[in-house]
């Protein structure tokens, strides 16, 4: 006799999914998809490139949200059938498949439930993440590169579009800084809880004595602005430098001065872009990131929320929000939500959904307490 009573757990998932659907409103999403599909089929759409990109991106995001809802509903239906088949056939393999599917769907619905908590002004936007090495010398630059890989792997696992806008390599190992753009629904709202100082404790591979070292890296997350929200920046407020794109060890990856660095003189904000071969394209991308940061700064000043959205990140002792410990034991712990895991390899390989979800819930509780 197969012991497989999943009815109550499936019913609970259906109830949670019903609450999520009420918030995301699939009927409204379907109407939005139809509207955007009509806009995307206009013959002269691409005469205005910026508007065309906005329409196609919005359509892609709406279709993805609708597809996710439809797939979950179908998976719940299939799970009920699978569980019933396992009992009727008394097949332990089928029962184990049903248990695994229940676990998988529970995780998917949990992640989607977190998205319903993202109701901030900028939350639906794509995200621009900048990672900078902090205190700790060469270990810090190596740690910054580990974090860069972690976020790239996270985006890859979710099939999100990601672009590396700029990378500044350190002399010995790792990176001084890197900026990436992740284009997916609610990328900023999801990843904004990753902003802050990250701390690594390990036996240093760069120390001949093999001593334990502590290093830091800062992660900044800002929303990518809409083209219509672009902030006008006077030319005399910017210094634009062009230089030759380079890779690790200073090896040239381009034979022309196509990389662009823009310094906003009033604020000191510096943005670089070198992923495109054209100087014009790099300048446009760098300018858009600069405008995003200035827009966020302006909104923060208007609403007195500087710490909430981007924060003052110093990447040093007393400021960390998450610790990655590789020696003398292995553990990654978020110091705000208290979520932790001993599987450090999976975390550095991009498995950070649980940390993100815990961070969003922690932030939401803080908002509720402050209200």
Give an overview in words.
- Keywords: Coiled coil, Cytoplasm, Methylation, Protein biosynthesis.
- This is Peptide chain release factor 2.
- InterPro entries: PCRF, Pep_chain_release_fac_I, Pep_chain_release_fac_I_sf, PrfB.
- GO terms for molecular function: translation release factor activity, codon specific.
- The protein is of the alpha+beta class and 371 residues long.
- The chain folds into three domains: 1-116, Methane Monooxygenase Hydroxylase, Chain G, domain 1, CATH 1.20.58.410; 125-225 and 313-368, Alpha-Beta Plaits; 233-304, Double Stranded RNA Binding Domain (2-Layer Sandwich).
- It has helices at residues 7-24, 26-40, 49-89, 92-115, 137-157, 187-191, 279-303, 306-309, 344-348, 353-370, and strands spanning 127-133, 161-169, 175-183, 196-203, 212-223, 238-243, 259-264, 269-273, 320-325, 331-334, 340-341.
- It has an eight-stranded mixed sheet, sandwiched between helices.
- Helix 1 (7-24) packs antiparallel against helix 3 and helix 2 crosses helix 3 (49-89).
- The longest helix has 41 residues, at 49-89.
- The model is unreliable at 305-309 (pLDDT under 50).
* CATH-derived architecture of the largest domain: 2-Layer Sandwich
- The total of helices stands at 10
Low-confidence stretches: 305-309
Shape: globular
Run of helices and strands = HHHHEHEEHEEEEEHHEEEHH
- In terms of quaternary structure, the protein is single chain
| First-to-last CA distance | 53 Å
GO cellular component, one term: cytoplasm
Pfam family, one: RF-1
Protein name: Peptide chain release factor 2
Keywords: Coiled coil, Cytoplasm, Methylation, Protein biosynthesis
């Amino acid at each position: 006799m197969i012991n497989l009573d999943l009815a109550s757990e499936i019913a609970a998932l259906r109830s949670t999914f019903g609450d999520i659907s009420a918030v995301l409103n699939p009927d409204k999403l379907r109407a939005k998809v139809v509207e955007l599909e009509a806009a995307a089929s206009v013959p002269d759409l691409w005469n205005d490139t910026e508007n065309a990109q906005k329409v196609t991106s919005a359509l892609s995001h709406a279709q993805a949200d609708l597809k996710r809802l439809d797939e979950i509903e179908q998976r719940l239906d299939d799970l009920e059938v699978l569980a019933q088949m396992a009992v009727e056939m008394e097949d332990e393999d089928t029962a184990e498949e049903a248990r695994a599917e229940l676990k998988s769907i529970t995780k998917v619905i949990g992640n989607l439930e977190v998205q319903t908590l993202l109701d901030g002004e900028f939350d639906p936007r794509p995200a621009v993440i900048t990672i900078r090495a902090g205190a700790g010398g060469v270990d810090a630059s190596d740690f910054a590169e580990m974090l860069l890989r972690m976020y790239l792997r996270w985006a890859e696992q979710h099939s999100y579009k990601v672009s590396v806008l700029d990378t500044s390599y350190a002399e010995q190992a790792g990176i001084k800084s890197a900026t990436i753009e992740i284009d997916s629904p609610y990328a900023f709202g999801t990843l904004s809880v990753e902003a802050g100082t990250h701390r690594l404790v390990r036996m240093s591979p760069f120390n001949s004595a093999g001593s334990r070292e502590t290093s830091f890296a800062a992660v900044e997350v800002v929303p990518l602005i809409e083209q219509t929200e672009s902030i006008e920046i006077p030319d005399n407020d910017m210094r634009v430098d062009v230089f030759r794109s380079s890779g690790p060890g200073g090896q040239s990856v381009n034979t022309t001065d196509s990389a662009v660095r823009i310094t906003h003189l009033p604020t000191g904000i510096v943005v670089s872009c070198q992923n495109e071969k054209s100087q014009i394209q790099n300048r446009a991308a760098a300018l858009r990131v600069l405008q995003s940061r200035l827009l966020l700064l302006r909104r923060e000043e208007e609403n007195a929320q500087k710490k909430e959205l981007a924060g003052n990140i110093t990447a040093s002792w007393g400021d960390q929000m998450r610790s990655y410990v590789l020696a003398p034991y292995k553990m990654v712990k978020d110091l705000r939500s208290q979520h932790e895991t001993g599987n450090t390899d999976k975390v550095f390989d991009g498995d950070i959904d649980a940390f993100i979800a815990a961070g969003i819930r922690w932030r939401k509780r803080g908002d509720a307490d402050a209200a």
